Amino acid sequence: MIDVPELALVALVGISGSGKSTFARTHFKPTQVLSSDYFRGLVADDENDQSASAAAFDVLHYVAGKRLAAGRLTVVDATNLQSHSRAGLVKVAREHDVLPVAIVLDVAEALAWERTGSRPDRTFGRQVLTRMHRDLRRSLGSLAREGFRKVHVLRGPDEIAATEIRYEKLY
Ligand code: GTP
Ligand code: MG
Question: Is the C-beta atom of 36 inside 6 A of ligand 1?
Fold first, then answer.
């Protein structure tokens, strides 16, 4: 059971194949989830066009800001493995006086690799996943310092699957 403020900006953090989109679908309404893939698709007609990432995140941050201004819980489904990408989320949360919260899905690189292997839209090589995994290890040490008020780390598929979310009232 993890506690999430009823109004928060939730950053999912995890390597490709860690189960972020699955977790988001399980626990949140579709409209609460802003996915980097979706926004790449909006701006570039291709969810996998990495060259569209900057434009996609601009729009994602903009929509997140509008949702937070309206008092709506917002979940960002992106790898969020780099401190500079997370900084944009902390910034938009602070601008709207909303708590940034991180939920880290920490799964073994081998499991993630096995899962992405069966996805035709995930064609990167193993070394890309290895780099993501290294970035994740690094991220674990710095999330709290970056301004995330809560950092929930879910370790392994069993813990991830068993997790429930409890909403905390804000006073
Ligand atoms: P990216 O979008 O590439 O960053 O990956 P992701 O972190 O969003 O992972 P996603 O939720 O797409 O899961 C990857 C694959 O693993 C999918 O085929 C899922 O069906 C599968 N998967 C995710 N979570 C679970 C789980 O708890 N159990 C099982 N058996 N499969 C899972
Ligand atoms: Mg995904």
Answer: no
